[in-house]
Design goal:
Blueprint lengths: L1 H7 L1 H18 L7 H22 L3 E4 L3 E3 L1 H20 L10 H18 L4 H20 L5 H32 L4 H11 L5 H22 L8 H7 L2 H23 L6 H23 L4 H18 L8 H26 L22 H15 L5 H15 L3 H25 L5 H9 L7
Antiparallel strand pairs: 1-2
Helix pairs in contact: 2-3, 2-5, 3-4, 3-5, 4-5, 4-11, 4-14, 5-6, 5-11, 6-7, 6-11, 7-9, 7-10, 8-9, 9-11, 10-13, 11-13, 11-14, 12-13, 12-17, 13-14, 13-17, 14-15, 14-16, 15-17, 16-17
């Protein structure tokens, strides 16, 4: 067991060591330029161990009923760590690196929290991981910021996340009251025995517990109508932090749902609630994004729509839910980080108040072709157009939903996804738009005279 504890949890221990090393380096006042390489080295080492464990087919019950390492846990951890490395690679030292040690320390703590969630077999460990994932996000939103809007956004995010935490705890307490155990397996088995009908006192309490847990995690994943202040929070912070919230946090929370329900079939009543919420989130997110003129707010509403696609996979009864959501979260999260990083390259003033207007992207392909092509690739992937990766992510989800007998719901969600095409294609067309002589003259008139 000691060997399993050391080897099975080695990726998490490496992340914990990274947090400690970054704290020591900051305390010793070492040059802040070392923070980013240290982060990449620590997360890269953890990811390498994960890949080795995946290749070896490693599984272990580290602590019975509390910590379990299985294939899903390993793959989910790898997805989240890949997002962290994508943030480090996408944002240059002059952008995310300007924050120094605190930025990378908080991000490493979030990755550690996500890893704890993915390895959870009990609700106690699960809850600790969710909070370790969420709490550093508040600090990241205001870290290095002196603007009131950032503090307001962080406060809104804190309130929204706190309500989600309360709902999650209520659900866990109800589940414990019925099963007498904090094990996730005990809850899922009891829920399956009840048949999702809610008959009897125990069945009703289990249904209430499941709905409370789903509501709490839906709040943290910003699923309509639980998205509340998520767009305000996303738009108020720096673009690299927004990328983390929309990728690392959302991917971890959605995969946390799978950690609870696994490939078990949800009850009829739960499906009747989840499917309409997923469709509403897709339609609302895409419609709201259509009217946005700011890049960060547009991506925030886009994340609401994509949360709907991910939640839609919960109605699957074919047993492919874990694989579908692993693919979807990986493609979505990496595309979001790529889009944010490319936008930061194209529009460096995007973090200054209202400086993230979409009109700043007009004709950017002619000035920064590589960054513009990267942004176009990410947006077309988010739109789900073939042959981009996002198309296959949506294909997997819709195929499983249709195979589960929910054809009408799949058609409605598919129609709602067409609304997103106008959002993403509109931005892509801006990138390749020819610059007007007026705009070019306006820019050249603002250029300082050499030698002045």
């Amino acid at each position: 067991m000691s060997a399993d504890f050391l080897y099975g949890l080695l990726p998490d221990q490496l992340l914990l060591a990274l947090v400690v090393v970054l704290m020591v380096m900051e305390t010793a006042r070492l040059d802040a330029r070392w923070a980013r390489p240290a982060f990449v080295l620590g997360v890269g080492a953890a990811l390498a161990v994960l890949l080795q464990q995946i290749g070896a087919g490693y599984t272990a019950e580290i602590i019975v009923g509390e910590i379990r390492i299985d294939r899903f846990a390993l793959l989910a951890k790898a997805v989240v760590l890949a997002c962290g490395l994508a943030v480090a690679a996408g944002f240059a030292a002059g952008h995310a690196g300007r924050a120094g040690y605190k930025f990378w320390l908080l991000l490493a703590a979030m990755l550690l929290g996500a890893g704890v969630v993915m390895g959870s077999a009990g609700f106690a460990t699960f809850f600790i991981g969710i909070e370790l994932l969420s709490l550093p996000a508040f600090a990241l939103m205001v870290q290095g910021q002196g603007r009131t809007v950032a503090s307001e956004g962080a406060f809104k995010y804190l309130l929204m996340s706190s309500v989600g935490t309360a709902l999650l705890l209520f659900g866990i307490s109800l589940a414990y009251g019925v099963t007498g155990s904090l094990g996730i397996d005990a809850f899922v088995q009891a829920l399956g025995t009840a048949g999702g009908t809610g008959h009897g006192t125990g069945g009703a309490q289990l249904q209430a517990a499941a709905l409370l847990m789903l509501s709490g995690l839906f709040l943290k994943a910003a699923v309509f109508p639980f998205h509340a202040w998520a767009p305000d929070a996303y738009a108020s912070t720096r673009i690299e932090v927004m990328a983390i919230l929309a990728s690392v946090v959302k991917a971890a929370v959605v995969l946390a749902l799978v950690r609870i329900v696994g490939s078990e079939t949800l009850g009829t009543a739960t499906i009747a609630l989840v499917a309409p919420l997923a469709i509403a989130s897709i339609v609302f997110g895409n419609l709201a994004a259509l009217g946005q003129r700011r890049f960060k707010r547009l991506l925030a509403y886009s994340s609401v729509a994509h949360a709907g696609y991910m939640v839609f996979a919960l109605v699957d009864t074919t047993g492919s839910r874990p694989a579908d959501l692993l693919w979807y979260t990986a493609f979505y999260a990496l595309a979001t980080v790529l889009a944010s990083a490319c936008y930061a390259r194209l529009c460096p003033a995007g973090d200054d108040g209202d400086g993230d207007g979409l009109d700043a992207l007009d004709g950017q392909f002619h000035r920064h072709p590589l960054a513009a092509l990267g942004l176009a690739f990410a947006l077309l992937s988010l739109a789900g157009l073939p042959p981009f990766p996002g198309f296959f992510a949506k294909l997997f989800v819709f195929t499983s939903v249709i195979g589960s007998g929910h054809l009408v719901a799949a058609v409605l969600a598919f129609v709602g996804s067409f609304l997103g095409l106008a959002v993403y294609l509109g931005i892509v067309l801006r990138l390749f738009r020819a610059e007007s002589p007026t705009a070019m003259d306006g820019r050249s008139s603002r250029q300082p005279l050499r030698g002045a």
